[in-house]
Amino acid sequence: MNPFERYATDHKSAYERRRESIANKRRVTLLRKKEDERRQLEHRYRDSIKEFVADFAERAGERGRRLLAFLDGLTIHDREALLDAACGFRTCNAMLRRDALHLMNRAMIGAREDAALPPFDDPLWDRKSVFDLIKLELVGDEP
Question: Could you tell me the sign of the dihedral formed by the alpha carbons of 27, 30, 34, 39, in that order?
Fold first, then answer.
């Protein structure tokens, strides 16, 4: 191969370099935009969770505040205490029971992740998970 052909194959034209530069700038801009959107969604999600918890505490009263305090310190060894806490919401309206179930589920997932376990404890065969027992207690057989 002569030096002119080698130069032609090894080097890019100014047009190709410019196209690559523009593509890289677009890619960087797009990545920054996606990161900003992710950050905004994360803040919005955190704010909505805070509003949800505050609304639950207001609607549930003292019982709800006790549940939230208990869920803040939940560990994977608090199975029976969590079932007892769920029984306390048996007489509440359906919306409040579903909200309590949601908060308990989030707390259980967090406790499992803190203990370096997978976030979900899928029951095998006839064994019921804590979530299944709590759901049966609060919601019953509703879909």
Answer: positive
Q: Give per-residue pLDDT as tens, 41-92.
A: 888 888 888 899 999 999 988 989 999 999 998 888 888 888 888 888 888 8
Dihedral of the CA atoms 55, 60, 93, 127 (nearest 10)?
Answer: 100
Q: DSSP for the chain?
A: --HHHHHHHHS--HHHHHHHHHHHHHHHHHHHHHHHHHHHHHHHHHHHHHHHHHHHHHHHTHHHHHHHHHHHT--TT-HHHHHHHHHTTTTS-HHHHHHHHHHHHHHHHHHHHHTTS-S-----TTPPPHHHHHHHHHTTT--
Domain boundaries, the chain: 61-143
- Tokens representing residue 60 in the block: 């549930």
Under 8 Å between Cβ of 65 and 57: yes
